[in-house]
Design the sequence.
């Protein structure tokens, strides 16, 4: 059960637009179930709350239910039961108002490959009731921001993978949604474009757009998101702030590059040290241990460290631990 | 924003997109029916028609002109919606519409009007071509236009339903090839059912296309094998039935949502 939904009654009142004093949540999900026609139960009663202005990571292994949850929020598939509210608008009773709040960047390319880039944006704006002249102005703004303006008359099929991803972001923003959902937005994108997309997303989040991100690049989630939920086998197994989650990490594994080769593993009491090769050490450091003590111990033995890096992304380690423990729980 | 203004802009967007689509690929959408119908006029109207003599009190080419115009309207209204909506499903850009605050009836009417636009354009092209072969005299403009538009709407709706159920390209060609074409050819485009034995006349009355072609022929020539009121009623009943069925399919997300 997610930690933040302590009072489900309060969440219901607030999330479904009846509150007079608290700000409305950007997204509130209550007990959401989805069973496909073939009997596969993709969501087993998830509850989730994302506050307005948040940059929120929804993580989980493949087939965990992330895309199903997103597709339900975006009205692309029908839920089996449960409730979804977007900025206080119930998806069942105020469908159109709820839909106006969302922009979606899906995992797969889902635009007409034969249409010119600018028309894809203008048409999408039209579906939201934005007059054609204003739609062209908006299209120009977002295509320029995402470095696609030069390609505005190009058919979408001729764009590179990175450009197609950026086109989907521009399309999702053209009606200026308050909640932007990005499902693996940087999959298959080179590091330079990924970094520029991060900057862009940070900026629109700073301007007030709530963002929900799913990604397999955990350093991306760690770098961008303030809050996080982990979903596995159709259940939320963790929902907390990124800082709190990372603070749960008990040990970190560091790789040290040395200035001179060693013939044996140096003895550093309290630290797990492994000699990877003559000039590389791996050291396991507990959360309460000091790096200064480690360096002092090495220095006393005449070992100088040239450089150091984390062997594994911190969030990645936690993610693996959480999913493994959920798996063990499920098995028992 | 006023909801009706929003719906109006969304509807206009879908229609514009549809019209741009079929005009952009005019070599595939507008030219073939023009060429095919020209061949019909030359072969059946001129070469063979002159040996057939009169039918229903008119020269054979005059008799087949209304049927050929309406046949092209039927085929093109259907083809436009079935291929366009199936592509939106296949390439998943139906999601652009599903995520937006566009009611199902706006989606349906947008695609249907797109189909009617292509049917109308092709119908006008075929009518212009027919003027090279015969003097077209219109008996009743009201009936002619009414049947033209209603038939186009009916087959655009049928194309939409076909696209909703279709999962492969075969599925969007099976119905036109094995259902639509036989019904149209047996619907009295090239002959009057009075030429048929009584039994086959009765069988023909079960073919809805027969009513449309005869109603349209009445609009142009003033002759028909069928009572016009009955024909119009049948067309309207089909339109209402197919509209309700299409909206139910959209509401349930059949073929669109999992």
Sequence:
């Amino acid at each position: 059960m997610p930690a933040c939904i302590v009072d489900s009654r309060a969440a219901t009142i607030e999330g479904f637009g009846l509150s007079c004093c608290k700000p409305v949540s950007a997204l509130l999900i209550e007990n959401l179930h989805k069973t496909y026609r073939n009997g596969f139960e993709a969501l087993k009663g998830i509850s989730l709350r994302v506050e307005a202005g948040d940059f929120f990571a929804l993580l989980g292994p493949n087939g965990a239910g992330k895309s199903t949850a997103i597709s339900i929020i975006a009205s692309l598939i029908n839920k089996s039961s449960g409730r979804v509210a977007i900025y206080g608008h119930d998806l069942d009773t105020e469908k159109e108002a709820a839909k106006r709040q969302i922009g979606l960047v899906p995992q797969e390319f889902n635009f007409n490959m034969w249409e010119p880039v600018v028309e894809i944006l203008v048409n999408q704006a039209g579906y939201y009731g934005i007059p054609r002249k204003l739609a062209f102005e908006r299209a120009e703004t977002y295509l320029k921001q995402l470095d696609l303006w030069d390609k505005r008359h190009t058919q979408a099929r001729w764009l590179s993978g990175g450009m197609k991803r950026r086109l989907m972001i521009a399309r999702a923003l053209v009606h200026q949604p308050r909640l932007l959902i990005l499902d693996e937005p940087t999959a298959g994108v080179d590091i330079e474009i990924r970094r520029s997309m991060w900057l862009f997303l940070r900026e629109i989040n700073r301007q007030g757009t709530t963002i929900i991100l799913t990604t397999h690049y955990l350093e991306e989630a760690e770098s961008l998101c303030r809050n996080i939920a982990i979903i596995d086998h159709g259940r939320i197994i963790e929902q907390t702030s990124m800082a709190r989650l990372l603070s749960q990490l008990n040990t970190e594994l560091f790789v040290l590059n040395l200035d001179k080769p060693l013939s044996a593993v140096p003895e550093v009491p309290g630290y797990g040290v492994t000699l990877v090769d003559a000039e590389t050490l791996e050291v396991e450091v507990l959360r309460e241990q000091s790096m200064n003590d480690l360096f002092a111990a090495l220095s006393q033995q005449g070992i100088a460290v040239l450089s150091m890096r984390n062997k594994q992304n911190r969030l990645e380690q936690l993610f693996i631990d959480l999913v493994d423990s959920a798996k063990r729980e499920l098995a028992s | 924003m006023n909801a009706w203004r929003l719906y109006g802009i969304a509807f206009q967007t879908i229609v514009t997109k549809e019209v741009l689509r079929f005009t952009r690929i005019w070599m595939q959408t507008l030219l073939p029916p023009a060429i095919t119908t020209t061949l019909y006029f030359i072969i059946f109207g001129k070469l063979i028609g002159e040996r057939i003599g009169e039918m229903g009190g008119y020269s054979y080419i005059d008799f087949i002109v209304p049927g050929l115009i309406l046949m092209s309207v039927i085929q093109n209204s259907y083809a436009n919606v079935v291929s366009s909506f199936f592509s939106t499903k296949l390439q998943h850009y139906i999601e652009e519409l599903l995520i937006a605050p566009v009611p199902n009836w706006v989606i349906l009417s947008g695609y249907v009007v797109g189909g009617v636009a292509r049917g109308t354009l092709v119908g006008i092209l075929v009518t212009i071509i027919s003027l090279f072969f015969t003097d077209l005299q219109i008996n009743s403009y009201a009936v002619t236009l009414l049947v033209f538009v209603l038939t186009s709407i009916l087959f655009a709706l049928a194309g939409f339903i076909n696209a909703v159920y279709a999962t492969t390209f075969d599925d969007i060609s099976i119905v036109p090839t094995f259902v639509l074409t036989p019904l149209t050819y047996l619907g009295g485009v090239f002959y009057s059912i009075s030429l048929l034995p009584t039994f086959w006349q009765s069988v023909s009355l079960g073919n809805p296309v027969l009513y449309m072609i005869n109603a349209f022929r009445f609009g142009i020539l003033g002759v028909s094998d069928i009572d016009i009121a009955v024909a119009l009623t049948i067309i309207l009943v089909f339109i209402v039935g197919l509209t309700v069925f299409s909206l139910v399919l959209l509401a349930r997300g059949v073929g669109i949502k999992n």
Remarks:
- Residues 1-19 of chain A have pLDDT under 50 and may be disordered.
- The interface with chain B takes residues 36-37, 71, 74-78, 95-97, 99-100, 102, 104, 106, 108-113, 119, 123-124, 126-132, 171, 175 of chain A (CB under 8 Å).
- Chain A is about 35% helix and 25% strand.
